[in-house]
Write a structure and sequence with these properties.
Helix content is 58%, strand content 6%. It is mainly alpha-helical and 467 residues long.
Amino acid sequence: MAVWLAALVYVVVLSSESISAHRSFVTGFDTALYDQLLWLLAHGHEPFSTIVMKPMLADHFQPGLALLTPLYWLGGGVPALLVVQSVALAATGPALYTLARASGARPALAAVPALLWIACPFVARLNLWEFRPTAFVSVLLVLSVLGAVERRFWLLGATGVLALSLKEDVAVVYVALGAVLAIRGERRVGAVVAAASAAWFVAASLVIRSGSGSLDVFGRRFAGDRGDSVPEAIVWMVQHPLATAADVVRESLFYVALLIVASGGLALLAPLWMLLALPTAAHNALSAYEPQHLLSFHYHQLTMTGLFIAAALGVHRLQSAGRGLQLAAAGGITAAMILAVAAGSWAHAHSTERIRLPRDTTSAALALVPPDAPVAASPHLLPQVSQRAQVYTLPAPFLPLDIGSPLTDAELAERARGVEYVLYRENDMPVEYSGTPEGVLTMLAREGFVPIRRAGLVTVFARGGRP
């Protein structure tokens, strides 16, 4: 009962906070991307996102996103997405409780990893940092493990397919799940899970590569100055093992340790199941892309989920443990609670670090853009105008972004000529743009865009100064 009550409180608080942030123009690029795709699907349009200038399955392989289309048939939008995201992350708590009970933990002990998940500040950060369909993966992965532990293979299969459909790299975690099951003696089931997941990953990668250059972009981010692709970065790491180890320790070890502390250290009670956290943790640690090392973003979601699964499956050991282990566990749980309080204020305040905009004046300025007009917008204005066929991430389509779009220069130029309005927010540029804000303003003047309204940090431009 306590777990379900905590989950309900989480849904109410985090939904309200997320919607408030959205209405204060804090949400950005990712939220707008999925909002546009779902709007296109709901209205029977081709799911080609002009925000990333790629087909739906050519940025990430996420066919499961289409399952959210009914929300848009019912008139939902970004607020509805933020609510269901909160529900999905909150539901992981009761799922962990059920998993712990299935492994033999008494109700009071089973509630511990569940409540620590709900109180975890890094779970809150997932909720408050944009909408992503991968928010559903955590509860699906827990249910997959529950199906495997209880030999309800229909549950393992159903939740596994749903989880795989939400992002291509989820398959790597399911390969690890197959390996864990094989080590535990379920060799046939483990082999099927691992082989099917690996095949899915390969197929999804081929679909992405056939539709865009996204994998090349991701490879360059991962490699950094170690090459231009993942294979080149791996060769560099093999040739420089000490430098690689030093980078991992310096940039990632502390954050992974924090995730273990957030689980109360209970993950250490089931070390084999911690292998579920390894693929994502290793990928993030070895990447040169700095956001992958930090807990401010979404990249560690599956690392965290794997650790909490291990906690749920290991907590029953405390029932027969000696006093020393019980005292150590009590210390770990206390540390997790302190972390939840100390980092909780950071997690909830962090979303306001990006300057919120006044709602009334900013909304009035954006209302000058007709609902169906082609528009280019700064990242944190995109979610306010993303429900249309043509909305671009400024400075695209006028200036190139390193996003792996399959569109040719001629096609981009044609789209640029069709843009009628531009919504510009000061110093709000996509990470894929290597130029300066001044360069964007100069380009807009050259393209014939004239300011028609200013509202604080936001300027509305119209081509030729049309009202």
